[in-house]
Hints:
alpha+beta, D-amino Acid Aminotransferase, Chain A, domain 1, D-amino Acid Aminotransferase, Chain A, domain 2, 14 strands
Amino acid sequence: MSVKNDIFWYDGKLIHSQTLELDINDPGLLYGATVFTTLRVYENSLDSSLTNWLSHCDRLLFSIQTFGWQQPDWNRVRQGAQILLAHFPVLRITIFPDGREWITGRLLPQSLTEKQKTGILCAVASPEFYRSLPSHKTGNYLSAWLARTSLDAQEAILVDAEGNWLETSTGNLWGWYDRNWYTPPKKAGILPGILRSQLVNWLQNHQQPVREETWSIELVQRFEAIAYTNSVVEIIPIHTVNQPTGSLQYNPYHPSFQQIRELFVAS
């Protein structure tokens, strides 16, 4: 796969540049008024079950309809994604309120394989760094970005006003305790990740219970292992969580992770 850093798709055109020109009054620029989804292309195909193209489009459509925005030309969205997947394994598809589409590509994160194997360090963020409109993936991602960049850690864990863990700045949380998988419920105010939905269905189909419960301080102390997931990194264990009251340690090599990893080879 060739990689070109100066290529993207915008408003029906393939553009060779590292800059995008927007009107100074564009609400996407002024207010972050966009919705987006980020997907990983598997088997070099948008139609791979793991790429999950339709679910990513449905995520965009749900937000567009909720906000009363103009729908994009979906054929044009797919055309742009089809062109860019020849250059990038990860695509970010952004839609503006007037239906313009903007698609960029990037490589997989550095050291991804190592992080998947040995886990990462996380820190609990301040409750002020909550995501606005948590059911939607909007261009206003400032709080999650601040949470991640303001902490001396590889990922931030967002919490509610009571200190319950919600999600990381880029993914959904999973915990293993007493032979069950746990994940925070949608009603807690999290982004319902596409891979999260995939995993819930896949685990249940394999007779593995998934409990959607509030991640209270008491519950997170019981977990033997925790991890976060998103459509790009798949699953990354978390070995340490720093919090104001001290650090929590988890087993990044827990055998339960192998069950989830099987999803990515069983498609």
